[in-house]
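Q: What residues go here?
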């Protein structure tokens, strides 16, 4: 009976904490005069009462399962893939996704169709709602061809940089995109969002079993902490890399333990797919440092299986050769098609020529202490998106002590690369060393994310080999208390001003003091459980941290009506379907998101986001090649039409944005048929080139160009 009441109490505590977080996410402005009204309204809404009840049931279930019998846990483990598929099926069935398209809905003046179940849309996720979403939707109008006839005005590679769905061999290495090809856009979008989470969660769990010698609680902790870390959820971009690398390690371990030729062949083919997925994500800033981790894990797997592995020269050499051939062949087939795009990208001013030699990011290394608050603030830049709750430097201290005592090979190798990463994060290293180690391909900020993931792996490995409690109950309490205060206050000094700028309302200081107290409490809890080696406590606290920091980062919504059913998009779709032509977006409309809005209606847009530059096109109007350093980059492009007495000019606004001042005579050169703008273009008509307004939707005008 005491156990039942204890479990109910724990579930109630976590439910209350999460409910407060959800409330703050919605209300936000604590110091606002109408805050009390907002709070009462939120609490008394039927759907929120239902949501809180569901959260309580969910947490109660988790707590009971953790403390349940081995038989129940064994059944859940046995049928884990069926459960994962059930989650995926339900999400797709009800068109659930995590897109922040509600922000785009604001620009489209269509917020009444925003169907959010949980959380809020994130302005900071602009790459997702203003670029990726229009790109993915445009592919449905492009019949999922490899080359888009719509993005950049046509002839655009859809795979290597943008990772879009297409009826091409390359899509096999973007498995999350397969849903678009068979399920339609809305359910395809749901499949993409849900599959990525399930894919990562399950693969990290299985990799964790290798690292922890099949300790399922620690593996589950690792899976939650990585899958729902701030960096994964705010970026949503490194999922395939982590998942593919994890799968490769798991399959290689199974290969070395297997004697049956047919299963070895299956593992070989599967490993080749995972290896190709990793290579073809094509983002070296994360790929390179993650490769260090997976290489160490690969060496560990070989060491662990060395004595029991029965090497069959003919069979194993053939299969390992097949593995290399399949990876090389798959990569060659895809990259040969995309090679012109790769070359163009590598020769860009930004990001192609971006090189780093380390240093400058150590000041952010303790930011993780406050990452649980990012979902209830309006974070303003990428800094918050690189964080992982990794317990630095406690993890390193514990690992070093364990290495001295146990001489654990895996822990030793992981700590070696941990030190290397720490040096690169903290200091500028010699150029030759940066290039030899390939770390010149990454940046300290991006490496900080991988450093955090590495630290979590080190932590679970430490807990695996250290079977005894580190300290007594009193010693654990005092040490965890002092360390949590120390780490939080070190972090506070650096992050205070940053977070204060993200907090709405008038009483920011009180708000931040609350943050600090909660940060100390949460950090204290997990440190205490680590010192006591209380795996149940570690797991429950980890799940709570994951929910606060990651689950709430993206909204949970139904469908895409807030975008696809907007009056402007429907008007664009109507115009383009009856008389297709090339579009530009110009005037005072900001490049993001308006330059990609016509894509939502299936229109071909010259100045939609250029993932890589169309050099031949821009040279048509930059005849002297004066501005190539401006347009030779990844960019969001604005047009400003001017009279015929001027020349085209390119002005750089930021590393990824520029404005083209375009004489109206050049419209014919670029073969422009439609213009979307916020200004009156009829005044620019000169009898030779005329502008006829054909639509006005909430102040956004559409003109046809008459030559």
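A:
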């Amino acid at each position: 009976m005491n156990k039942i009441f204890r479990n109910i109490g724990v579930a109630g505590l976590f439910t209350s904490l999460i409910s407060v977080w959800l409330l703050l996410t919605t209300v936000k402005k604590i110091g606002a005069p109408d805050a009390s009204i907002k709070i009462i309204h939120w609490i008394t809404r039927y759907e929120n009462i239902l949501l809180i009840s569901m959260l309580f049931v969910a947490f109660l279930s988790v707590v009971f399962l953790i403390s349940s019998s081995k038989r129940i846990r064994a059944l859940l483990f046995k049928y884990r893939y069926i459960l994962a598929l059930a989650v995926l099926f339900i999400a797709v069935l009800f068109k659930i996704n995590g897109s922040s398209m509600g922000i785009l809905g604001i620009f489209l003046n269509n917020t009444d169709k925003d169907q959010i179940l949980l959380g809020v849309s994130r302005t900071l996720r602009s790459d997702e709602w203003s670029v990726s979403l229009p790109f993915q939707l445009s592919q449905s109008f492009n019949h999922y061809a490899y080359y888009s006839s719509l993005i950049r005005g046509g002839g655009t590679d859809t795979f290597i940089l943008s990772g879009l769905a297409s009826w091409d061999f390359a899509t096999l290495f973007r498995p999350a995109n397969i849903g678009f090809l068979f399920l339609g856009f809305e359910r395809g979008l749901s499949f993409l969002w849900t599959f990525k989470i399930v894919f990562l969660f399950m693969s990290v769990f299985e990799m964790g079993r290798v690292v922890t010698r099949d300790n399922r609680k620690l593996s589950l902790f690792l899976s939650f902490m990585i899958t729902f870390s701030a960096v994964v959820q705010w970026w949503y971009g490194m999922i395939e890399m982590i998942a593919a690398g994890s799968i490769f390690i798991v399959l290689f371990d199974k290969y070395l333990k297997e004697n049956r030729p047919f299963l070895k062949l299956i593992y070989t083919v599967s490993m080749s797919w995972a290896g190709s997925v990793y290579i073809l994500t094509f983002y070296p800033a994360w790929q390179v440092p993650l490769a260090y981790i997976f290489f160490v894990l690969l060496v560990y797997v070989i060491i662990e299986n060395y004595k029991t592995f029965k090497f069959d020269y003919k069979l194993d050499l053939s299969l390992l050769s097949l593995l290399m051939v399949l990876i090389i062949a798959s990569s060659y087939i895809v990259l040969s098609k995309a090679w012109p795009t790769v070359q163009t990208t590598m020769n860009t001013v930004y990001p192609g020529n971006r090189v780093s030699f380390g240093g400058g990011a150590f000041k952010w290394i303790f930011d993780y202490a406050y990452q649980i608050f990012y979902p209830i603030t309006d974070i303003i830049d990428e800094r918050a998106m690189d964080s992982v709750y990794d317990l630095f430097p406690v993890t390193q201290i514990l690992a070093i002590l364990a290495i001295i005592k146990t001489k654990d090979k895996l822990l030793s190798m992981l700590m070696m690369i941990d030190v290397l990463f720490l040096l690169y994060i903290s200091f500028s290293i010699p150029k030759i060393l940066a290039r030899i180690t390939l770390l010149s391909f990454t940046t300290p900020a991006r490496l900080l994310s991988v450093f955090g993931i590495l630290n979590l792996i080190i932590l679970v490995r430490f807990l695996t080999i250290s079977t005894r409690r580190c300290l007594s109950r009193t010693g654990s309490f005092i040490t965890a208390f002092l360390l949590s205060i120390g780490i939080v206050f070190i972090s506070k000094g650096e992050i205070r001003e940053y977070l204060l700028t993200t907090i709405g309302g008038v009483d920011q200081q009180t708000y931040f003091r609350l943050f600090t107290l909660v940060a100390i409490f949460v950090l204290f809890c997990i440190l205490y459980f680590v010192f006591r080696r209380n795996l149940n406590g570690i797991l429950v606290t980890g799940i709570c941290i994951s929910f606060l920091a990651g689950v709430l980062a993206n909204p949970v919504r139904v469908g895409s009506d807030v975008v696809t059913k907007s009056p402007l998009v429907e008007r664009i779709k109507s115009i383009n379907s009856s008389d297709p032509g090339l579009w530009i977006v110009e005037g005072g409309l900001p490049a993001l998101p308006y330059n990609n809005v016509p894509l939502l209606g299936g229109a071909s847009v010259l100045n939609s986001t250029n993932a890589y530059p169309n050099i031949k096109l821009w040279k048509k109007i930059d005849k002297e090649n004066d501005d190539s350093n401006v347009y030779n980059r990844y960019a969001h492009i604005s047009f400003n039409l001017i009279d015929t007495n001027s020349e085209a000019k390119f002005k750089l606004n930021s590393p990824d944005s520029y404005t083209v001042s375009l004489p109206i005579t050049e419209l014919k050169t670029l073969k422009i048929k439609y213009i979307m703008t916020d200004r009156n273009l009829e005044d620019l008509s000169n009898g030779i080139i005329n502008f006829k307004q054909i639509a006005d939707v909430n102040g956004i005008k559409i003109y046809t160009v008459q030559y």
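A: Context that may help when evaluating the design: Confidence is low (pLDDT under 50) at residues 29-33. The longest helix spans residues 178-211.
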